[in-house]
UniProtKB/TrEMBL annotation:
Entry annotated with the keyword Transferase: yes
Keyword Chloroplast belongs to the record: no
Record keywords, A-Z: Acyltransferase, Transferase
Enzyme Commission (EC) number: 2.3.1.-
Protein name: Streptogramin A acetyltransferase
Top-rank taxon, per record: Bacteria
GO molecular function, one term: acyltransferase activity
Length: 219
């Protein structure tokens, strides 16, 4: 019975090491691309799309290895599902994070243990397009995106669209659209997202004595 954890650990090490070796050339290409200056991400996008459609457990290992080598930060024990794409290198994936199939990530910071549902989108904070003098929406090079922070142990439901930060332990219902920051330990739902209920009455991050009651999300 004691040999099972050891065997599992050896298999995990073998898969992760093999994946890291296989993605090394693409990681190097993406690294060289950064030397051209900020905003050059064509190879990063291309290789990300290539690894996104690799099936099975080893496909997940390849995606994780690629993003560990190209993102600002990516934990060795996160799970990145089939079809997941990161639109920018400036992203951080914390430990124990799960990202479901076909999710789209902008400039994000995913806290420990966050669950990101399938087909959900977490956008970078800030303006994505501006209207030019001829009334056309464009994406100029000087737009400054900010990191959208998702707290620890959050649950982002399937097909949710998140456009602002989310506090620790919050739950975003399936299909919800959030345009304002969601406080910690509350559930929101709908489009636009509105307060549904508090998930806890006391803030677990506060000391046991003197803990404060959570506020509701404004509707």
């Amino acid at each position: 019975m004691q040999s099972e954890p050891v065997l599992r650990r050896l298999i995990k090490i073998t898969l992760n090491t093999s994946a890291a070796v296989l993605v090394a050339p693409s990681v190097l290409v993406c690294y060289l691309e950064t030397k051209r200056g900020p905003g050059y991400e064509r190879f990063f996008h291309g290789w990300g799309q290539f690894y996104a459609v690799m099936p099975g457990l080893f496909g997940m290992c390849l995606r994780r290895a690629f993003y560990r080598g190209t993102l600002t930060g990516c934990s060795i024990d996160c799970q990145i599902g089939f079809g997941v794409l990161f639109n920018h290198r400036e992203a951080i994936v914390g430990p124990e994070v799960y990202i479901g199939p076909y999710a789209l990530m902008g400039r994000v910071k995913l806290g420990r243990g966050s669950l990101i549902g399938s087909r959900s989108s977490i956008l970078s904070t800030g303006e994505h397009h501006v209207m030019d003098g001829q009334g056309r929406w464009t994406t100029p090079d000087n737009l400054l995106f900010q990191i959208t922070e998702i707290g620890e142990y959050c649950w982002i439901g399937e097909a949710a669209i998140v456009m602002a930060g989310v506090g620790d332990g919050a739950m975003i219902s399936a299909g919800a659209v959030t345009a304002a920051k969601v406080p910690a330990y509350v559930m929101v739902a709908g489009n636009p997202a509105r307060f549904v209920k508090r998930l806890v009455e006391e803030d677990p991050s506060e000391p046991e004595e003197g803990g404060k009651t959570m506020g509701a999300v404004s509707g």
